[in-house]
């Protein structure tokens, strides 16, 4: 088995809806207008309703209700539209996983926090088109969901190795499957026709040197993932994440960027506030309380 073969074998299970693929394609075309996107989105009543619900939520705090899809697109912009549509599509695809395999609220809170932290770090670094790192952060863990969904029995051996031999999950996955969830998730994003600037960054999260031209983005994602674990520790009381502290990584990054040593240390707090707002949009009615 390889990441490619597993993704091919689950193509029908984990394929994005045509409307999502078309919207993603249109956003990358310079001549696209809000009306063009609205025409496609209106073909999916559920997506249209969700977009209007989100734009009229407290997150955007509009003085009066937004009533049309075109208005909504004009309000939030193309990049935010892409983030919303891709995020909600991913949540919908994997929402059926049994809670005994994975706590989806914990999973998506971590993803949201990672995406927000990555986007914020990219902005502070002054990276061009750094907004795309929100999706890289949000979706960086999808390979783990694929393992839980399609290889549940084999993954029990991964968990056994983590518990009894004190291996980290990546090393245990490589021993059992020959590849890890990072590689698998990146392959899924590639199959979903994400640009290289996203799936290659996800693929190189553990070793940014492998990202080539996207090394800076991969380094940001690596640190953002640590920030996300620290954020999750403020909401989720588990021994696994309670001791996570991203301060050292943030200080190293600040030094590399020629900033003051403490310049990035406010990131976990700022990320936490935004993460719960976005999380509530993606999973309304969540039982997590901040």
Automatic annotation (TrEMBL):
<protein>
    <submittedName>
        <fullName>Putative signal transduction protein</fullName>
    </submittedName>
</protein>
<dbReference type="Pfam" id="PF08668">
    <property type="entry name" value="HDOD"/>
</dbReference>
<dbReference type="InterPro" id="IPR003607">
    <property type="entry name" value="HD/PDEase_dom"/>
</dbReference>
<feature type="domain" description="HDOD">
    <location>
        <begin position="13"/>
        <end position="208"/>
    </location>
</feature>
<dbReference type="InterPro" id="IPR013976">
    <property type="entry name" value="HDOD"/>
</dbReference>
<dbReference type="InterPro" id="IPR052340">
    <property type="entry name" value="RNase_Y/CdgJ"/>
</dbReference>
């Amino acid at each position: 088995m390889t990441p490619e073969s597993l993704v091919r074998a689950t193509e029908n299970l984990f394929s994005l809806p045509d409307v999502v693929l078309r919207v993603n394609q249109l956003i990358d075309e310079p001549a696209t207008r809000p009306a063009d996107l609205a025409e496609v989105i209106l073909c999916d009543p559920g997506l249209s309703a969700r977009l209007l619900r989100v734009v009229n939520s407290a997150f955007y705090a509009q003085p009066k209700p937004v009533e049309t899809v075109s208005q909504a697109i004009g309000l939030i912009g193309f990049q935010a539209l892409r983030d919303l549509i891709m995020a909600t599509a991913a949540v919908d695809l994997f929402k059926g996983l049994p809670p005994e395999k994975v706590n989806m609220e914990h999973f998506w809170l971590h993803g949201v926090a990672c995406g927000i932290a990555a986007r914020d770090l990219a902005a502070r670094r002054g990276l061009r088109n750094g907004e795309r790192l929100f999706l890289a952060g949000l979706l960086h863990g999808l390979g783990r969901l694929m393992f839980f969904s399609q290889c549940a029995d084999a993954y029990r051996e991964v968990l056994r190795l983590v518990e009894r031999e004190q291996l980290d999950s990546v090393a245990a996955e490589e021993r059992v499957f020959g590849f890890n969830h990072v590689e698998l998730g990146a392959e899924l994003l590639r199959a979903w026709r994400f640009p290289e600037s996203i799936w290659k960054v996800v693929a190189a999260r553990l070793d940014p040197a492998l990202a080539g031209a996207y090394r800076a983005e991969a380094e940001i994602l690596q640190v953002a993932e640590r920030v996300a674990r620290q954020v999750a520790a403020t909401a989720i009381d588990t021994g696994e994440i309670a001791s996570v502290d991203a301060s050292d990584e943030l200080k190293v990054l600040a030094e590399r960027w020629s900033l003051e040593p403490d310049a990035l240390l406010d990131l976990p707090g700022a990320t936490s506030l935004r993460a719960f707002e976005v999380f509530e949009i993606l999973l309304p009615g969540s039982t997590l309380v901040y």
